[in-house]
Amino acid sequence: MMNWSVIRIVVVFVFAGALYGFAKKNHNKREISNIKVYFDDAQALFIDEETIENLLKENMADSLSFSKYMLDLNGLEQMLNENKMIASADIYSDIQGELGVRVLQREPIARFYDGSYQYLDKNGDVMPLSKLYSARVPLVSGFSEEEITIIYPLLRTFYKDEFLKKHIIALRKKAGKSQIELSVRNQDYTIDFGTTEHIELKISNYKAFYLKAERDKKLKDYKTINLQFGNQVVCTLKQ
Questions:
Q1: What is the spatial distance between Cα 180 and Cα 157, in angstroms, rounded to a whole number?
Q2: In the predicted model, is pLDDT for residue 227 greater than 60?
Q3: CA angle 34, 37, 38 (to 5 degrees)
Q4: Which pTM does this prediction carry?
Q5: Using CB atoms within 10 A of its CB, is residue 99 exposed (0-12), middle (13-18) or buried (19+)?
Q6: Taking Cα atoms as reference points, which of 218, 219, 166 lies closest to residue 190?
Q7: Nearest to 104 by CA among 48, 43, 39
Q8: What is the pLDDT of residues 62-97, one digit of tens each?
Q9: What contacts 105, CB < 8 A, 6 or more positions away?
Q10: Half-sphere exposure of 66 (CA within 13 A, CB side)
């Protein structure tokens, strides 16, 4: 005898599966109606929405009339990730046919000149300047692009420290030497930092000196601050 209850259950599952497949097929064939770009950090834009939209359209046949199932989302993400202003991109589509793009920009930590001005980002990679925004980062001079890797740990340390990030405005390589000289914001003195050895110790010494000199209101009296002598901070007064 046939078990009609079992047959009914099977028919329901087959019908539900067919409906799901039909709905998914129609969903995938839905045309892209819009592109929406979201920036994880929109405070400073090195690349804008229009540029990203144009990059996507150039790589999507028939632009916005292209069906969702014909889009290679991974390929589009890879294309955006190859842009020198973008750290990572995540692309998705919703049921309304909107193509969403989440963009994380690269973060510069210094600007340097080696034939042309470029940025160094927080991962130690070179990135071009932007026409949209100029980052407020230290200017590095005297170091070639190849030598930037030498001072990257120091620049990275400055970037991660909220005080130094605003305080240090320039790094220079002394002529014919591997010594580093720093300029600071709103002060006349320079800092002889020496090499990139013992970075944390030198920074700790400088902060202790700065706090005391600021408290004593003597910062304006100094011409140079030398951090190359272990636990000592050697200062030269203005004449």
A1: 15
A2: yes
A3: 140
A4: 0.78
A5: buried
A6: 219
A7: 39
A8: 444 455 545 677 888 999 999 999 999 998 887 777
A9: 39, 40, 41, 44, 45, 46, 47, 85, 86, 87
A10: 19
